[in-house]
Amino acid sequence: MASIKAKKVKATDLELKDRLVAIQRVTKVTKGGRHFSFAAIVVVGDEKGVVGYGLGKAGEVTSAISKGIEDAKKNLYRIPLNRETIPHEMESKFGGARVFMKPAAPGSGVIAGGAMRAVFESVGIHDVLAKSKGSSNPHNLVKATVHALMEMRDAYQVAGVRGIKMDKVFNG
Fold it and tell me: What's the predicted TM-score (pTM) here?
């Protein structure tokens, strides 16, 4: 079966909102003492189906965050949504992090952990049930969640791959 990847999107003409997922202080021990730097993972999205994530590293927290935002704007993807939820169940993994997500009824809310919640809110998903298994490393959780969302296919994409009309997707 042909795999359909999410389409890459340019950051121009989008009102992107950024969310800081995690910030980490990294210590390098040298002969002269300890040297501190910071690593920040940031998720950006327009809350209408576009999301991206980025990692920024710098000597100052604000510099690391701004570098993460710039990196995230270079890697934006359009995610297919079914109203305000995801089209179907999905599992994914990245490194030791495993994520499971399934659509929820309207009004259920985002039932997910911190790193996954930031991704869902940036995409514009308001109703979803999600579970993270394995590693709780925020970097790997964000990457696994975005990877799962990029693998999502809506009914129009399924019909196109199968070469049939939309009404045949559900009836037949």
Answer: 0.86
The tokens describing 153, both together, are 């296919």
The mean pLDDT of the chain is 88
pLDDT over threshold 60, residue 103: yes
Per the DSSP assignment, residues forming a β-bridge with 94 are: 97
Average pLDDT over residues 53-80: 94
Torsion angle, CA of 155/12/128/66, rounded to 10 degrees? 150
Contact of 73 with 55, CB cutoff 8 Å: no
The contacts of residue 66 (CB under 8 Å, 6+ apart) are 56
Residues near 123 by beta carbon (within 8 Å), at least 6 away in sequence:
45, 47, 49, 50, 51, 79, 81, 149
Across the strands, what pairs with 78?
A: 7, 50
